[in-house]
Each structure stands twice: as C-alpha cells, then as structure tokens.
Design a protein that fits this description.
It comes from Streptomyces lonegramiae. InterPro entries: Homeodomain-like_sf, HTH-type_TetR-like_transc_reg, HTH_TetR, Tet_transcr_reg_TetR-rel_C_sf. Keywords: DNA-binding. By secondary structure, the protein is mostly helical. It has two domains: 72 residues, Homeodomain-like (Arc Repressor Mutant, subunit A), CATH 1.10.10; 112 residues, no CATH class. Helices cover 71% and strands 0% of the residues. It is built from ten helices and no strands. Helix 1 crosses helix 6. It is globular and about 55 Å long. 22% of the residues are buried.
Length: 198
C-alpha cells in the first residue's frame, strides 16, 4: 500500500481571479450598504460587514482601503445611479416620483442618507446643485415665488418620509409603508403636490 498522492493546487486563471475579485467586491459593498443603513457610519463595524459578506475582513482594506473607502465607494455608486434617474426631460412631478420609486425599491440609500444627517458620515456632502430646479422654475414647473432651495428640501423630505417615519405612515394612513396600497396612494399624492407647486 503506497502513500496518498499529494493534491496539486492549481492557481486560478486570471479570468477566474477577476470574477472572484468582482464577486468579493460586490458582496462587500452589499453587506456594507446593509450595515451602514442599519447602524450609520459610526456604528458600523468592519468585522460585521465582513461577516455579512462571508469574507475575511482584510479584503475590505485590500479592495477599498478600509471602512471609509467602502463608504466612499457606496457614495460613488449612488452618484452613478442618480445620474440615470435625474433626466432633465422628465416633468418635475415624474422626476420626484422616480426618486420615490427608488426609495421604495431599496430604502437602504435613504436610510444611509438619514444616518449621515443625524450622525455624520465619511462623506462631506457636496453643495446641492439647484441649477436644474432653477431652469424648471424659469420654464414654469415651479412657481416663481418659491425658493428652489426650500423646494429641494421639501422634495427630499417627501421622498424620504415613508422610510424615515414608518410609524407616522401607520398612524396617518392606517397601512404599512411598504404596502402596495400606500405606495400607490402616496405616489399619486406626491405627483399632485408637486404639480400644485407650479
């Protein structure tokens, strides 16, 4: 009876390493979004993010340079996503509803933004660009006596309210904020409110 043959470990091909790297990055980003949305930047722990992703926490430093880099990458992801949402050709009431749809589909970015406002985060927010809203105001989509900054704050509040205050949604509407009934009703009301501001 002979000795067992040693197992040969073959290094993965470059294409396989790239796929594994992309998969690891995606898992870490998704886990980080969950963790930051639940606990904010300050409350999130690198080990908890790694555990959620099922990966070694050293990979966070390897791929993103640490917790802050991971947070910054999530911020960049949102900016890329927002660029596909903010269509200047879309009527203002439909644009705001598009942001609401995004928040309903995945409330985590809204929660992350709320945490950032309450406790701060790794990203110092850029000044909000009001030029698009000013153009819409000049075109008659927003009444000329309204301050675009106040209107922007109102729109952000309207979009984030169901995520920020689900208990108030239950009190006022008598339904869950993630129910189809509430979503349909609130979406239509949001359209009407924005149109009334013209």
């Amino acid at each position: 009876m002979g000795l067992p043959r040693p197992t040969l470990h073959v290094a993965p091909a470059p294409a396989e390493r790239k796929l594994d790297s992309e998969r690891s990055r995606r898992l870490l980003l998704d886990a980080a979004m969950d963790e930051f949305a639940e606990k904010g930047y300050a409350g999130a722990r690198v080990q908890d993010i790694a555990d959620r992703a099922g990966l070694n926490k050293q990979l966070i430093s390897y791929y993103f340079g640490g917790k802050k880099g991971l947070y910054l990458e999530l911020h960049q992801q949102w900016l890329r996503r927002e660029a596909t949402i903010a269509d200047p050709a879309r009527p203002l009431h439909e644009l705001i509803v598009r942001y609401l749809d995004e928040s309903f589909a995945d409330p985590r970015p809204t929660r992350l933004n709320l945490w950032n406002g309450l406790t701060g985060g790794a990203v110092e927010p850029d000044p909000e660009d009001l030029s698009g809203l000013r153009r819409r105001q000049a075109a008659g989509e927003l009444a000329e006596d309204l301050d675009p900054a106040a209107a922007m704050l109102l729109f952000m509040s309207l979009v984030s309210a169901p995520v920020a205050m689900p208990h108030i949604v239950r009190q006022l509407f008598g339904v869950e904020p993630d129910s189809p009934e509430f979503r349909e009703h609130y979406t239509e009301q949001l359209r009407r409110i924005v149109r009334h501001l013209a």
